[in-house]
Specification:
The structure is a homodimer. By secondary structure, chain A is of the alpha/beta class. The first copy, chain A, contains 12 helices and 8 strands. Chain A starts with a strand and ends in a 19-residue tail after the last helix.
Chain lengths: ~300, ~300
């Protein structure tokens, strides 16, 4: 039996929300999809491509009578939106969000919401380096984790319904508490992004020296970093500002390890390097076994079909 | 007209050499392909899959009468191989290598080679995270750069012939001097690899705390890092030991930038982060325009066909 919401309101119409719209339509998971985006441009695009049934100039209008409200704006904008929509939420409605940081969203959103509204914070671990209403596609969440961090007093029926809804979009759903989520994601996503941004910035400085060679001879390694570093600047600024403690902690460990490897290079300690690189290789196998990536040789960039 | 070598000897039968073997066959670029690998296991595999016409127990036997000898062993093993094959090289033969570092290879190989043998160092900027004789495929070099760093006294006809041969395997060929090559690659490949190895190592430590979650929720960012960090440990150990100065220089710049971003996070300087992330985004566009990667949303991992 399909678990569906009568009316879903998408606040923010970027990659995640537009992918949800496509997935809801593909699965028949909502009768009406209402949408709101901050800029007139995005709203016009949403109308033009028929992303939602209705597109509203304000978030307050969009959430009227909605059974499910999805806050899909940068983490730093969640509090303001919550304050705006609170008086217009219908009793019994579920409010969720898709922010990459959870404790900061709970702190910003929960105080505004009236009793009788179920707030269930969430985070789909899915995305591409693209953003905006045209970047969405129905299968983005297929086989990807969607983490929920329900509060202690959460309504179990409301959580179960949201969970079933997300699973119908193809996601695997897990629950954990918010601080733990923020630490795990600092390791698997936030710190790697910061590092990739940094390396690409270094290359940008050096481009003045070596002309276009950095781009021209962009090899595996740097090329992957540039893809990561092409992600939405506003979203990532907010991630680092709101998951500050966990990110700084992991960065500290990273720097410590990097200095140890740097010393091994300087002193010519090949055994240390070899052992380290052998150990990290095993983690890759774990990820492939966990189904989080394919074993296709991605550096070949689609050339694998020519494999002999 | 096809430029071809009568007999090509591949010393080392890993990803690059086995891909060359497939590409040479596909293009009819050699009459005979002789191969040698250090381990009996690899030699047996090469025989089993028919990678070469002949497989030899020693490099010295493999290079006999060869017109082109390709040194495809880790950078740290080049000198020893050169010393071994030198007395067996035929006059007028071309010797090239595929090492990721060029000055160290020149220093290790050139002193051993007799006059009348053309040594033309090279580096194909192509690869996957796989290694070994089964990992090769004929199209690996298609539309990828192959950098040559000929010595000042290089024979122009020999260089031109090698160049045409590589182009027939699908590569784009450029020439530069060895120190410059080593600096550019430190930026585009060597330092990014070290950083990826480091981050994956940090996660491995933390896995003891968070159980399998680091792998389970491996997101874009970390997932890409693990692919990079799955590359061959011996090869990468040698890269860092032999391109020490350039790698340490770029690492120094990286650390400097990372500390500046870390401070921006700590002090809550959102504008600094936003500006930095906006600047790095532009580099990605440059790489796509340069044809070094596709604009397909890779984080979606082949889900792009469902894009609506």
């Amino acid at each position: 039996m399909t678990v569906r919401y009568e009316k879903v309101a998408l606040i923010g119409l970027g990659l995640i929300a537009s992918s949800m719209a496509h997935a809801m339509r593909a699965g028949g998971l909502a009768t009406t999809i209402a949408g709101h985006a901050k800029t007139a441009d995005t709203r016009a695009t949403a109308l033009e491509i028929g992303l939602c049934d209705t597109v509203h100039d304000t978030a307050a209008e969009a959430v009227r009578d909605a059974d499910l409200v999805v806050l899909a704006v940068p983490v730093g904008a969640m509090g303001e939106i919550a304050a705006e929509i609170a008086p217009h939420l219908r009793a019994g409605a579920t409010v969720t969000d898709v922010g990459s940081v959870k404790q900061a969203v709970i702190d910003a959103v929960a105080p505004h919401l009236p009793a009788g509204v179920h707030f269930i914070p969430g985070h789909p671990i899915a995305g591409t380096e693209y953003s905006g209403p045209r970047s969405g596609f129905a299968t983005l969440f297929q086989n990807r984790w969607w983490l929920l961090t329900p509060l202690a007093q959460a309504d179990l029926a409301a959580v179960a319904k949201l969970r079933a809804f997300l699973e119908q979009m193809g996601a695997k759903v897990d629950e954990m508490d918010a601080p733990h989520h923020d630490l795990v994601l600092a390791v698997t996503s936030h710190t790697p992004h910061l590092i990739a941004y940094t390396m690409v910035g270094v290359a940008d400085d050096l481009r003045r020296v070596t002309d276009s060679e950095v781009i021209k001879y962009s090899a595996a390694g740097f090329r992957d970093f540039t893809r990561i570093a092409a992600s939405d600047p506003t979203m990532w600024r907010d991630v680092f500002l709101t998951n500050k403690d966990a990110t700084l902690e992991i960065l500290g460990r990273f720097t410590e390890e990097l200095f140890a490897l740097q010393r091994a290079i300087r002193t010519g300690d090949g055994q240390h390097l070899f052992d380290y690189f052998t150990r990290t290789r095993a983690i890759r196998r774990g990820i492939i076994e966990a189904g989080q990536d394919t074993s296709a040789p991605d550096f070949g960039r689609g050339k694998a079909e020519g494999r002999a």
